Each structure stands twice: as C-alpha cells, then as structure tokens.
Amino acid sequence: MVLALCVVLSLLTGSEPVALGEVLRVLFADDRSDAAVIVHDLRMPRTIVGICVGIALGLAGALMQSLTRNPIADPGVLGINAGAAFGVLIAIVGFGIGSFTGYVWFAFLGATLSTTLVYLIGSRGNDSGAPVRLALAGTAIGAALVSATEAMVFLDPKAFDEYRFWIVGDISKPEMTVVVQLLPFLAIGTLVALSLGPRLNAIALGDQLGKALGAGLVQTRLLVGVAVLVLAGLATAAAGPIGFVGLAAPHLARAVTGPDQRWLLPFAGVLGAVLVLLADVLGRVVLPSGELRVSILTAIVGAPLFVYLVRRRRAVA
C-alpha cells in the first residue's frame, strides 16, 4: 500500500503539475498530449527505475547484514558502490562505453574487487570481521577509489560531462530502454536473494548449528556474494552511487517482520523502493527551483542513522 502511494506521488509530482484523473486517463489511453508525454516519457521510466534500484539496494543490504551478522553492513559503507562507480568510469574513459548494458559488467567487476579488498583488510588481526573494522576498511577503500575516480575524470575532460551527472546518484533522466535492460538483472538477483531466506535463518543460529541444519556455509556465502554483486552493481550502474538505502531499509523491515529472513528480505526490498521513491519525490519539491538529487536526500537521512547504529553497537559491546 505504501509503495503504491509512493508510485502515485511520483507520477503526480514535478515541475509541471498533472492531476490524478489526467494521470489515470493517459496511463490507459493512446494519447500524445502534453500530460501523456510527461507521464509516459518522463515520470513512468523514472518511477520504475526508482523501484528497481530501491529493491536492489534494500535486498543487497539485508543480505549483507544477515550473512555477516553486522548491523551496519551496506553496499555503500563497505565500498561496493565506490568500486562499481570506478568500474563504470573505466568503461567510459577507457573503452568509450556509454550504455547501461555496456558498463554494467564493469560495475560488477569493480564491485567485486573493492569488496575483496575490504574483507581482506577488515578481517586481519585479533578483532577480525568486527563491524567497525569492516566499516573503516570500506571507508578507506571507498575514499581511495573516489580519489582515483576524480583524478581520471579530470585527466579526460571528454568523459567529464557524461560522468558528472551519473556519479551524483540520480534517477531523473532514465529511458524505457534502461528499464528493459534492468529487469533481467533484477529478476536474477531477487530470485537468488529470496531463495536464501531459510539458509540465512539457519546460519543465524551459528555456523556449527547451521551446518547441522543443512545450510552449506561456503555455498550460501557464495550465493549471497553473487546476489549482492548483481543487485548493487545494477543499482549503481543504473542510477549512480546511492548510499544508505541498503543500510536503512533492512532495519525498518526488521522492526516490522522480526529476524525471520523469509519475511525480512522481501520487506527490505519493498521498503528500499519506498525510500528511493520518497527521496526522489522530495527532491523535486524541496527546492524553489530545480531538483535535489536522490543520493543527497538519502545521505541526509542515512548518515545520522549510521552514527547511531555504530554508537549503539559500541555501547552493547
């Protein structure tokens, strides 16, 4: 119900007001009026991309938090978004690729490499794998990748115009072709993620008990890694780095469903879509003129939540 309301708000809200009755009429009519162009060519693709990106980020965050038992795990916090962004820049600068299907593979590769580095660094020492260590490692790797990305952009001015809009994290100018290209990746990542609910429930009881219950640890971790990389990679490739949705959505879902992963995962995906659409709608109206990017609004809400979670974990420890 909340997601449906957000979809309606997304179709209604913008610099050019369109009444609800007019939106409903043009949705189901072969019409090329101004209202139809606004709804079909601008707001509908934007809304669908927002839903896809939100579902992907919500699921990816829930998977990471569940597998690592780390309440601050998030594709952005652990450097996955920065790695995917760096991969996309390599595609743009090094190979002249400008389409989603072209650079999504580079996004996957960059996300894989950055995740590997974060876990190698964060898992060293006596306090290996601690949430704060992984967050610090992710912050360090993300900062290094951002610096390398900015240096490459300045060295190649031709790529700057295309890259500078994408890197902010935005869904304001999508096309239906991008929507069509997104759906297969989203379907694969979502199906794999939802199928892992029972295994993650078993692993949550402890590695040894999870093994006794038939949840293969290596296979489960591999499938979670594949799902997270597909979901976070497609979200970053389609909309740029949008942070903190993968952090907030699972916590909101957990407050509703409890720890059962069979319910938590789908709720996290839906709430991720709600957060992205709400941020997008607010971004259209919060400024007197122009729009505020989605990633800016999600960071405004997500950064205080991240600080709160870190401080709460420290107090519990």
UniProtKB/TrEMBL annotation:
One GO CC term on file: plasma membrane
Swiss-Prot/TrEMBL GO biological process terms: siderophore-iron import into cell
The record's keywords, sorted A to Z, are: Cell membrane, Membrane, Transmembrane, Transmembrane helix, Transport
Is Cell division given among the entry's keywords?
no
- Topological type in the membrane: Multi-pass membrane protein
The GO terms this record gives for MF are: transmembrane transporter activity
Predominant location category: membrane
Superkingdom of this protein's organism? Bacteria
Tell me where it resides.
Cell membrane
Per the record, the similarity remark reads: Belongs to the binding-protein-dependent transport system permease family. FecCD subfamily.
| Annotated PANTHER family | FE(3+) DICITRATE TRANSPORT SYSTEM PERMEASE PROTEIN FECC-RELATED, FERRIC ENTEROBACTIN TRANSPORT SYSTEM PERMEASE PROTEIN
What is the protein's given name? Iron complex transport system permease protein
Q: Which organism is it from?
A: Prauserella marina
